[in-house]
Amino acid sequence: MTHTLYACPVCDAPLSQEHKQLICPTGHSFDRHRKGYVNLLLAHRKKSRSPGDDMAMVESRRRFLQQGHYAALADHLTELCRNQLPEQPTIWDAGCGEGYYTTHLADAMPEARVFGLDISKPAIQAASQYKKIDWCVASSTHPPYQADAFDAIVSVFSRVDSDPFDQVLKPGGQVFLVAPDNDHLQALRNIIYDQVRPYDTSKHLSYLDQRFTLTQQTRLEVPLRLPDAQAVEDLLGMTPHAHRRSAAVDARLNALTTLEDTACFRIYQFTH
What we know:
- Helix content is 27%, strand content 29%.
- It is built from eight helices and twelve strands.
- The chain has helices at 55-66, 71-84, 100-108, 121-127, 162-168, 186-192, 229-237, 247-254; strands spanning 2-7, 14-18, 21-23, 29-31, 38-39, 90-94, 113-118, 134-137, 150-156, 169-180, 213-226, 259-271.
- The strands form two sheets. Strands 5-8-7-6-9-10-12-11 form an eight-stranded mixed sheet, with helices on both faces.
- Helix 1 crosses helix 7 and helix 2 (71-84) packs across helix 3 (100-108).
- The protein is globular and about 60 Å long.
């Protein structure tokens, strides 16, 4: 048997790798999919039959990100991890989606052990094409990892929870949180809404409790020049604005052939 950083989602005992299964000492076992990922999401922790992003949303995000529109964010996040983490770190991307930022980290830091988790099975199936990462279907509110498993947790536009992060992050470990700044995608929002209100960024600092100390925060602006209607539609599909479309908004969006905008990110670093 081979030691892993996974914990049994049923009893919390350590999981070991034997052939193509993860097995705990009490006998619970979980098969690795032929694509390499493992599904550790228990049925009673699903809030719907197919939680998380569906395949259409995953494909929209993949098309958009593979065009390099957010490459500057991926580079910035990678540089933070490279400068702030110890040698051969363990990194968990919590809510990794189709794995764009996860794979960027793994490529730039080949000495690291990188883990990607998402509640969406289609997202992990898409991500698992990249074989250097431990991919897992599970909920970030119940991460199936052993205590003190990670040197860092990365969360890009994803859920952040103090208790599970405290459980799996080593003392002195780092959390890198990426969230939209108050003027993120202003041009797109001007098309969708008659009155555009700034994002409330004050809530970002309330996501983690006193067990985590804010050590730095930075702002990153990324100019966007989307060349066609498909890129605009893909960007919209990555945002909560996609669910607030009226017939009038659809008409304005359908009239677009290009879009110039600015992606404005706020990157927070917390120490555990």
